[in-house]
Amino acid sequence: MPKLRLRFILGLLLLAVAACRQQQITSADIRLELQASDNRVGETTLLASAIDRRGNAIANPGKLSIRGDMSHAGMIPVFAESDQSTDGVFSLPFTWTMAGGWIVEASLTLPNGDKAVETFSFEILAEAGAEDRSNIAHSGMGGAPSETSAVYMRISNRGQADHVITSAESAAAEQIDFHQTVVENDVARMDALDALVIPAGETLELRPGGAHIMLSRLTEDLRLDGKIALQLKCSAGELYALDVSIAHMPLNEPDDTVTFGDLVFSHRWARPASAGGMAHAGMPMTEDSSG
Ligand SMILES: [Cu+2]
Q1: Tens-digit pLDDT profile for residues 89-142
Q2: How far is the CA of 104 from the centre of ligand 1 (A)?
Q3: How many CB atoms within 10 Å of residue 226?
Q4: pLDDT digits over 25-43, tens only?
Q5: 210 CA to centre of ligand 1 in angstroms
Q6: Domain boundary residue among 109, 124, 139?
Q7: What is the pLDDT of residue 244?
Q8: Quick check: 180 and 210 in contact, CB under 8 A?
Q9: How far is the CA of 66 from the centre of ligand 1 (A)?
């Protein structure tokens, strides 16, 4: 039967393709594995390997880059990199800088230039005996990887009196808080701030690893290159309506300066995030999240 013969030839072809691929590994042939030696705040060793289709670690698979981000968006990412593996296992020193949910992205660049990228989530516990160091409620922090974001900006006070911003609102998030990242003994934690104070004649810079405006329980996706509206309220009762650009990192010299009385707002940006997660279930679709 010609049909059977055709199948036989196809089978041979597939075998030949598979044989070729084992010599020239591509990202489609492998999956990445990642383990941490310790899941408490502090130093750890990440063990990573590239596994072939038969379940074996591939020797010298290429160069591995690691990026660790906290689900809590105000934190500075932690990086690690290595092109040295032993019996196919990379061993990378890494630091969990804070307790909470982490997303670790492992990116392997193969010798042929192909990239294999996978993400892993970790739940990191506080150091032994230090469980109550953070005064932030962790309710919104452990869920889906990106259901929080943080807003950063510069606020300059050109006046003679201090200004105090007491609250913030946005249609993009159900909960908005002011946070301050504090690093103590090489370990970062979050403290809640009652208000943002801009002393007379000074500039307050909200930045990753410092003070920031935390957006929790997002109601819409914060898409790269998009904008959200944010309203800040001053202790004197004034409202400052601002737009905030969605970006991965600080924008260089943006032309977004807005002045309200003594206060000058500029360099406003927030990290991309998706509403996702359980909190979003049953929410009406917005124009932005329909795509
Ligand atoms: Cu925060």
Answers
A1: 899 989 888 877 888 999 999 988 899 998 888 888 776 544 433 434 333 333
A2: 19
A3: 16
A4: 788 888 898 988 888 888 8
A5: 9
A6: 124
A7: 96
A8: yes
A9: 23
Query: Are 272 and 162 members of one domain?
Result: yes
Compute, in angstroms, the gap from residue 179 CA to the centroid of ligand 1.
5
* pLDDT more than 90, % of the chain: 37
Q: 55 C-alpha to center of ligand 1: Å?
A: 40
Structural domain containing residue 172: 149-279
How far is it, in rounded angstroms, from Cα 286 to Cα 291?
A: 10
175 and 266 part of one domain: yes
Q: Compute, in angstroms, the gap from residue 77 CA to the centroid of ligand 1.
A: 14
Total number of domains in the chain: 2
CA–centroid distance, residue 151 to ligand 1 (Å): 9
| CATH number assigned to the domain comprising residue 83 | 2.60.40.1930
Ligand 1 centre from 33 Cα, in Å?
30
User: How many whole angstroms separate alpha carbon 118 and alpha carbon 124?
Assistant: 19
- 3-state secondary structure string across 101-138: EEEEEEEEECCCCCEEEEEEEEEEECCCCCCCCCCCCC
Residue 44 lies in a domain: yes
Which residues, given as ranges, of the chain have pLDDT below 50? 1, 19-22, 129-146, 277-291
Q: Please tell me whether the overall predicted TM-score, pTM, comes out greater than 0.70 for this model.
A: no
List all residues 6 or more positions away from 136 whose beta carbon is below 8 Å from its beta carbon: 179, 190, 191, 192
CATH at residue 231: 2.60.40.1890
What pLDDT does residue 102 have?
A: 85
Statement to judge: residues 114 and 71 lie in one domain: yes
Residue 90 lies in a domain: yes
- Ligand 1 centre distance from Cα of residue 171 (Å): 18
CA 212 to centroid of ligand 1, rounded, Å:
6
CA of 72 from ligand 1 middle (Å) equals 6
Distance 269 CA to ligand 1 centre (A): 15
For residue 169, being part of any structural domain is answered with yes
Residue type, 211: A
